Amino acid sequence: MKEKSSITEAEENLLYIRQTLEAAGQLTAVPGWSMVAAGGLALAGAVVNGFVTGTPWKPETDARYPLMIWGGVLVFSLTIVLYGIHRQSRKMQVPIRSPLVRKLLWSLCPSLFAGALLTGLSFKDGFMEWLPVIWLGCYGAAVTSSGMVSVAPVRYMGLCFLLTAAVAAVSTPDLGLLWVAFGFGWLHIVYGAYIARRHND
Question: How many structural domains comprise the chain?
Fold first, then answer.
């Protein structure tokens, strides 16, 4: 009985150490299914762009309406992913502490800010055909950096976004929506499903 109690105590100590290390230095509560949902929203946005509003970089299109669609996709996706992180952290009993939040913000925000700035300049100066490269590249850089404090598949997803941006850069503008849908849609779905099965279950 004493031996069993010692084993239980050792397991509790190991769990406490693991949770402390993860909370301090790594985000393991990555919401795989929330990423899948975000990918689905991105595909829906691409469909609306393709069949209703047109793409922002199409010359005869009023760019404000398709950009509003992607703004909505961004807001809803962020809401879903943030809720998923909160829910997953409670499920895993790993609190997300302020040092980790600061690390994530420092890794994410510079690239995302650059993407927002370049998007504004593209809209102002009429170089909208570069938006797929800007969005995919800056998001890929942000995700790759944030992957250093998260699970490994997040880094690989970021690298795939960067590769997609590179391919979009040498493609014709009429294929821009295809690369945006592939990146923000299918990459999120594939990696989100993998993370859900590998890390969340």
Answer: 1
